[in-house]
Amino acid sequence: MEIARAAINGGARMLQLRDKLRDKGEQLPLATVLRDLCAANDALLIINDHADLAAAIGPDHVGLHVGQTDLPVAEARKILAPGQVLGRSNRDPDLIIESQQMGADHVAFGAMYTTTTKPMIRNPQGPERLKQARAAAQVPLVAIGGITAANVGPVVEAGADAICVTAAVGSAPRSRSRRRCAYRRDSSRRRTGLGRIPDANPLQLKAGGHVGRRR
Ligand SMILES: Cc1ncc(COP(=O)(O)OP(=O)(O)O)c(N)n1
Ligand SMILES: Cc1ncsc1CCOP(=O)(O)O
């Protein structure tokens, strides 16, 4: 919670609970207090993987993130309340198009750079591949993976609407309270919870905001 509060106080507009270890009932208390933190700050809590948990603590200020092998968008939406934000992971521009056709509110692309937060099964995408993703994306595009204050610039230049970071925020010195986990680039493409992210200078990214345990 200390990291989550610091991220919100630093300007992050979205937090994600990604807990690969605990059962959902065990995640529920933390999810609930994170939701309340987000609600009090007009931010959005994204639950990773678990549509039922996102529905249970939603709908207000709670969304869902699914990967390629999680519930498809249509099936997840049967569990969510109408209007709950739903994002989907993609490793290829073609998959971004597919995610959009499925009805994802925003699309994630990564890993941008090498990360130790999650095992890497392919080379980092890098900013050039992100430009291809940008060309495919018609909904907000979230860049993820290995992003830090030092390397976020090319990611933003390549067209990311938002930045999602884990290690950079989790390992940042506690004295640095200005943390951001999301960055909005262009208000013209907003139609989801990302639309509530205020413009932010990516260079103010002291660390990102990701809540939960590392795999
Ligand atoms: C914003 C964002 N992008 C990508 C991911 C990764 O999701 P997924 O592919 O489902 O992998 P796991 O997180 O489940 O390991 C994400 N969580 N958030
Ligand atoms: C969950 C996930 N999906 C792709 S990269 C990643 C981890 C990103 O974490 P970090 O910001 O620590 O590199």
From TrEMBL:
GO BP term, example: thiamine biosynthetic process
Record-listed E.C. numbers: 2.5.1.3
Superkingdom field: Eukaryota
Cofactor: Mg(2+)
Cross-referenced InterPro entries: Aldolase_TIM (IPR013785), ThiamineP_synth_sf (IPR036206), ThiamineP_synth_TenI (IPR022998), TMP_synthase (IPR034291)
SUPFAM superfamilies reported for this sequence: Thiamin phosphate synthase
Thiamine phosphate synthase/TenI domain mapped to chain residues: 2-169
Catalytic activity: 2-[(2R,5Z)-2-carboxy-4-methylthiazol-5(2H)-ylidene]ethyl phosphate + 4-amino-2-methyl-5-(diphosphooxymethyl)pyrimidine + 2 H(+) = thiamine phosphate + CO2 + diphosphate; 4-methyl-5-(2-phosphooxyethyl)-thiazole + 4-amino-2-methyl-5-(diphosphooxymethyl)pyrimidine + H(+) = thiamine phosphate + diphosphate; 2-(2-carboxy-4-methylthiazol-5-yl)ethyl phosphate + 4-amino-2-methyl-5-(diphosphooxymethyl)pyrimidine + 2 H(+) = thiamine phosphate + CO2 + diphosphate
Pathway: Cofactor biosynthesis; thiamine diphosphate biosynthesis; thiamine phosphate from 4-amino-2-methyl-5-diphosphomethylpyrimidine and 4-methyl-5-(2-phosphoethyl)-thiazole: step 1/1
Molecular function, one GO term: metal ion binding
Annotated Basic residues bias: 175-193
Keywords in alphabetical order: Magnesium, Metal-binding, Thiamine biosynthesis, Transferase
Gene3D superfamilies: Aldolase class I
Region (Disordered): 175-215
Gene Ontology cellular component list: cytoplasm
Descriptive protein name: thiamine phosphate synthase
